[in-house]
Amino acid sequence: xxxxxxxxxxxxxxxxxxxxxxxxxxxxxxxxxxxxxxxxxxxxxxxxxxxxxxxxxxxxxxxxxxxxxxxxxxxxxxxxxxxxxxxxxxxxxxxxxxxxxxxxxxxxxxxxxxxxxxxxxxxxxxxxxxxxxxxxxxxxxxxxxxxxxxxxxxxxxxxxxxxxxxxxxxxxxxxxxxxxxxxxxxxxxxxxxxxxxxxxxxxxxxxxxxxxxxxxxxxxxxxxxxxxxxxxxxxxxxxxxxxxxxxxxxxxxxxxxxxxxxxxxxxxxxxxxxxxxx
Length: 278
Ligand code: C2E
Ligand code: CA
Ligand code: CA
Ligand code: CA
Fold this sequence. Notes:
Helix content is about 55%, strand content about 20%. By secondary structure, it is of the alpha/beta class. One calcium ion (CA) binds near residues 58, 116, 148 and 178. The site of one calcium ion has 3 residues, from loops. This is cyclic-guanylate-specific phosphodiesterase. It comes from Marinobacter zhejiangensis.
């Protein structure tokens, strides 16, 4: 038993050590990923439950690692936030997303584009200028851009974040509260945030109509949105039953595998055309 214990201990140390080295290597690769053109933006359609039309897309980042394949954002974005590279990556995402939205508009397919903004980005003193400059460069109207921020992002730097959100709003840029209900939620702060959209996190949508608590939470968020005059977006919609329930309840927009997974830009274009032809 003694030996086993000792072996286990050594194994444990070895694996922690390996994990550290693994993380370091990933960080090193991440540092040149942008330069090597390994980032890709995918676009997931957002569907109006009132009209059945696609009104826009959420831009979702992918890292195509030459050896590891697709590295999911949940793995590398926390790393990029820790070492600060999220600022450059975020700038690239914003530029790419605005370029694409302007391109679609020029092709007669105007779409609103939603971009995820991390807390580190929102903390940058020149974030508002960066965003405005990007819109300008691509000649994209401000109301075609939506920034998705989480409550946690706003809460970590409350006064500064709210001031910046007001400046975005003043310019006509839309703001969505992402992952609503999963972070520190405070209705007092929500009232102070100049937002237009609440996004119901997929964790409440997944077991919608199966789990009573989740059904109540999702329904409560829809009702809250109505009473505060905010549009509600459900993410992670996977079934016709979920779509039907959300529509009946007056949820405005939905995105999820039921409609489409996140797509490459060309696939998004053909998807929109087919979807509206149906
Ligand atoms: P999020 O903003 O909450 O994005 C929703 C996630 O749900 C996405 O995961 C999307 O691909 C996934 N999803 C969409 N429809 C369904 C569905 O029907 N079922 C299920 N199970 N999942 C669905 P993804 O693309 O892996 O992104 C994970 C997270 O990474 C995002 O969560 C967001 O927080 C972050 N992220 C992604 N792109 C960016 C970015 O450009 N910048 C920043 N700062 N964060 C990003
Ligand atoms: Ca999001
Ligand atoms: Ca979410
Ligand atoms: Ca095209």
